[in-house]
Design goal:
Length: 273
C-alpha cells in the first residue's frame, strides 16, 4: 500500500515537472507584451512672429539646454538665462551637439532647438554647397525636380529622430519656429489664409505631425466699437485646431493659454513640468 502511494506521488511530481518545463519552453505570446503606456516627457513646437517671446517661453521648461541656430536668448535676463551650446556655424555642429546629449552624461531635462526655421536655411546652404555641379539655388540642387528640397526635409527628419531618442531617455523637446502665412485652397470651400511654420512644405511634418503640442503664440486682441484693436501686449498660446493657424494638442486643452512671464503655460496640463 505504501509502495503504491509512493508511486502515485512520484507520478504527480513528474507531471508537475513536465508541466513546468513546457511552460518554460513555451514561446512568449504577443499578448504578453500588452500594458498600459506610461506618461512620458512631451514634444512641443512653438511658432509665432518675431519678438513675441518664443525663446522666453521655451526657457520655462525644466532645466533646459538650447541648441541655437540663431541667437534668440539676449532678451532673457542674465540671471535666469538658460544654458546653451555655441551658436551653430554649420550642420556638422548640430549633429555633434545632438550626439553629445545622447551619449554623454548630463542633468538637462529639456532640449530646445531655436529655431528650426534657421536650421532650414543652414540645411539649404549645405545641400547647395555640397553639390559638385555648383547649383545656384536649392531648386537646381541634386539635379533639380525637387530633389534638393527632399534632401532638406530628410535632414529635418534626422533631427526629429535624434530628438525622439532624447525624448525616450526622458527629456522634454521644444522646437521653436518662425511663423509665415500660407493660402489653403480646398475644393469644397473658398481659399483662406492661415499661419504655419516658416519651412518648406516637405519639412513641416516632423514638427507638426509627430509632436504632442503645436502652439501658436500671438498677441491677444479685443473687439471694441466693431473695430479690432491690439491689447496692451498680453499674449496667448493657441493649442487647438483652428482655420487661422496650425495648432494642436494631445492633452485635451480646449482654450487658449495665457503666456505669463517666467511661467510655463502647460504646467497644469503636462506631467513633469
Amino acid at each position: 500500500m505504501l509502495f503504491n502511494t509512493f508511486n502515485c506521488l512520484q507520478g504527480v511530481f513528474n507531471c508537475i515537472s513536465i508541466t513546468s518545463e513546457i511552460k518554460k519552453e513555451r514561446k512568449m505570446s504577443i499578448f504578453d507584451t500588452i500594458s498600459k503606456p506610461e506618461d512620458r516627457s512631451t514634444l512641443v513646437t512653438i511658432l509665432g512672429d518675431a519678438g513675441l517671446g518664443k525663446s522666453s517661453l521655451a526657457s520655462t521648461f525644466p532645466n533646459p539646454i538650447f541648441i541655437r541656430a540663431e541667437d534668440g536668448l539676449q532678451a532673457i535676463p542674465l540671471d535666469i538665462r538658460p544654458d546653451a551650446f555655441p551658436v551653430l556655424k554649420q550642420s556638422a555642429d548640430l549633429w555633434a551637439q545632438l550626439s553629445c546629449l545622447i551619449t554623454d552624461p548630463h542633468d538637462y531635462k529639456t532640449l530646445v532647438i531655436d529655431s528650426v526655421t534657421a536650421l532650414e536655411r543652414m540645411f539649404i546652404d549645405y545641400i547647395v554647397e555640397s553639390d559638385p555641379k555648383k547649383p545656384k539655388s536649392i531648386n537646381q540642387a541634386m539635379g533639380g525636380y525637387g530633389a534638393g528640397l527632399t534632401a532638406v526635409a530628410a535632414m529635418h527628419g534626422r533631427v526629429r529622430k535624434a530628438c525622439g531618442i532624447l525624448n525616450n531617455m526622458g527629456m522634454h523637446i521644444v522646437f521653436i519656429a518662425h511663423a509665415d502665412t500660407e493660402t489653403i485652397d480646398l475644393p469644397d470651400s473658398e481659399p483662406y489664409t492661415r499661419y504655419n511654420l516658416r519651412l518648406g512644405k516637405r519639412s513641416t511634418a516632423p514638427y507638426v505631425d509627430d509632436v504632442d503640442i503645436v502652439g501658436f503664440i500671438k498677441l491677444q486682441s479685443f473687439v471694441k466699437d466693431d473695430k479690432k484693436i491690439i491689447s496692451d501686449g498680453s499674449r496667448v498660446l493657441s493649442v487647438t485646431a483652428t482655420a487661422s493657424n496650425v495648432s494642436k494638442n494631445r492633452y485635451g486643452i480646449t482654450q487658449d493659454l495665457p503666456v505669463l512671464l517666467n511661467q510655463n503655460p502647460f504646467k497644469n496640463h503636462v506631467t513633469g513640468l
